[in-house]
Amino acid sequence: MEVYREILPESYLLILADDNDPTGGAQLSYALRRACRSGKPSIWVDCSHLRNLSFSTLRVLVRYYQRLQERHIPLVLCHLGDSAGQLLSSLPASLCPPVVPSLLDAERYCRTQRTTATS
Fold first, then answer.
1. Which end of the chain has the lower number of beta carbons within 10 A, N or C?
2. pLDDT tens digit string along 30-85?
């Protein structure tokens, strides 16, 4: 898996893309670690270039989602394919990061979360 990073004004965007590298989970973990340290108020993960979401990738995403929840930093998945959505739906809802259709929706979701947290 290739992991591309984009630092946006209000978020840290990770774009996941397929490749033949079996160490994708390690690359994703490294990228998420950097995103956590960035100081950005939210992290978005764009899965539009992934054909399949492996169980090991899902495990990394869930682990970081739980860590970030403790720090009140939303981790949001977007552009998730059907097979990835099915894999995610097999987990308990409390473990699943929110899934939104687009980056614009990720921005709206995170803005709502910040507003709710400060109220």
1. C
2. 999 999 999 999 999 999 998 888 888 888 999 999 999 999 999 999 998 887 77
